[in-house]
TrEMBL record:
It catalyses: a 2,3-saturated acyl-CoA + A = a 2,3-dehydroacyl-CoA + AH2. Gene3D superfamilies: Acyl-CoA dehydrogenase/oxidase, N-terminal domain (1.10.540.10), Butyryl-CoA Dehydrogenase, subunit A, domain 2 (2.40.110.10), Butyryl-CoA Dehydrogenase, subunit A, domain 3 (1.20.140.10). Residues 6-118 form the Acyl-CoA dehydrogenase/oxidase N-terminal domain. Residues 122-217 form the Acyl-CoA oxidase/dehydrogenase middle domain. It comes from Bacillus infantis. This is Acyl-CoA dehydrogenase. The keyword Metal-binding does not apply. GO terms for molecular function: acyl-CoA dehydrogenase activity; flavin adenine dinucleotide binding. It comes from the Bacteria. Keywords: FAD, Flavoprotein, Oxidoreductase. Belongs to the acyl-CoA dehydrogenase family. InterPro entries: Acyl-CoA_DH_CS, Acyl-CoA_Oxase/DH_mid-dom, Acyl-CoA_Oxase/DH_mid-dom_sf, AcylCo_DH-like_C, AcylCo_DH/oxidase_C, AcylCoA_DH/ox_N, AcylCoA_DH/ox_N_sf, AcylCoA_DH/oxidase_NM_dom_sf.
Length: 379
């Protein structure tokens, strides 16, 4: 059992950590206030060749592994949660389904622009009445004269304003328990396709979260992703990989909160000595450090299993569940250690708490993760 990163993973870690500290972190507070999407940051990441990091070089990717993807997601999230979730969704929700289920022609046409950064990756799954119950999908895709005619809406879709195309799930036949759900690639400039960006969110303000409305959107049947009727199965596989990304994002935000709390505890004096000399504060910081390390190891294990081609559904849910919950716990304690200052935006920690909450919801809520784990252990 070797816990040491490879030479390539260490190189990626060093590169992305420096980039995150120098390019991403300085503007995070202002982006949270202005809700400005970090487009310039992603232009630079494209130039660095990490926008397609875990995909093969033949598609413009970096040929790296899932552990490397987790490292990049964690470091970007440590600097700015909005940047971290944008990157994670771009890879795991936008690129992965195309790579896993697309034809060679679809990969060349749709995956390559994602890997090169020409387009952001996005995935249209969630609907107003189909969140945790994704099987409740109502968006329909009627097949006629060699085309799918798509009608319906999606909500809480990451990156869609900056995507040139995305895969959406839609009902292509059947009804009720026998509903047939398929995945279809849809260009965002198709007639009748609207991307609406007007959500007011608790956190992750600089990320792009949108509503999609489709009214008689027509695409050729060749835009079917994978096999007809296997959309439900495909997005379950997609979400397994996405949960590793959310786990890494949660670790990054927790790490940032811990670092701020540790720094503040060393600098702040009360009753004639620094906060870090009080045992109550030492124990809080020790617990924070311990839980972050455990969460990171869980993320790395799930990523490693995926890279080895081994089953990782249970571990992906475990790492996402644990990392997201300790992220909220660590952010809460960071605010507490800062006292009144922790409630102020200039000290960052309240942003970590707001940003971190999404990790307990996105890619399946904590309750859904427990259902997945229970199923995996034979309950």
């Amino acid at each position: 059992m070797n816990f040491e990163l490879t030479a390539e993973q260490n190189m990626i870690l060093k590169m992305i950590r420096e980039f995150a500290d120098e390019e991403v972190a300085p503007g995070a507070l202002e982006r949270d206030r202005t809700k400005e999407f970090p487009k310039e940051i992603f232009n630079k990441l494209s130039n660095m060749g990490v926008m397609g990091l875990p995909f093969p070089e033949e598609y413009g990717g970096g040929g790296a592994d899932t552990v490397s993807f987790a490292i990049v997601t964690e470091e970007l999230s440590r600097a700015c949660g909005s940047t971290g979730i944008t990157y994670s969704a771009h890879i795991s929700l936008g690129g992965a389904p195309l790579y896993l289920f697309g034809t060679e022609e679809q990969k060349q046409q749709y995956l390559v622009p994602i890997c090169t950064g020409e387009s952001f990756g996005a995935f249209g799954l969630t609907e107003p009445n189909a969140g945790s119950d994704a099987g409740g999908t109502r968006t329909s895709a009627a097949e006629k004269d060699g085309e799918f005619i798509i009608n319906g809406s999606k909500c809480y879709i990451t990156n869609a304003s900056y995507a040139k195309h995305l895969a959406i799930t839609a009902v292509t036949g059947g009804s009720g328990a026998d509903k047939e759900i398929s995945a279809i690639i849809v260009p965002t400039d198709a007639e009748g396709f609207k991307v609406i960006d007007n959500y007011e969110k608790m956190g992750l303000n600089a990320s792009n979260t949108t509503e999609l409305v489709m009214e008689d959107v027509r695409v050729p049947t060749e835009h079917l992703l994978g096999k007809k009727g296997e959309g439900f199965k495909q997005f379950l596989i997609t979400l397994d990989g996405g949960r590793i990304g959310i786990g890494a994002m949660a670790v990054g935000i927790a790490q940032a909160a811990y670092e701020k709390a540790l720094q503040y505890a060393k600098e702040r004096t009360q009753f004639g000595r620094s906060l870090s000399q009080f045992q109550a504060i030492q124990f809080k910081l020790a617990d924070m450090a311990m839980k972050i390390e455990l969460a990171r190891n869980m993320v790395y294990k799930a990523a490693w299993l995926k890279d080895q081609g081994k089953p990782f559904t249970k571990e992906a849910s475990m790492c996402k569940l644990y990392a997201s919950e300790i992220c909220m716990e660590v952010a809460d304690q960071a605010v507490q250690i800062h006292g009144g200052y922790g409630y102020m935006k200039d000290y960052h920690v309240e942003r970590y708490m707001r940003d971190g909450k999404l990790t307990e919801i996105g890619e399946g809520t904590s309750e859904i993760q427990r259902m997945v784990i229970a199923r995996q252990i034979g309950c």
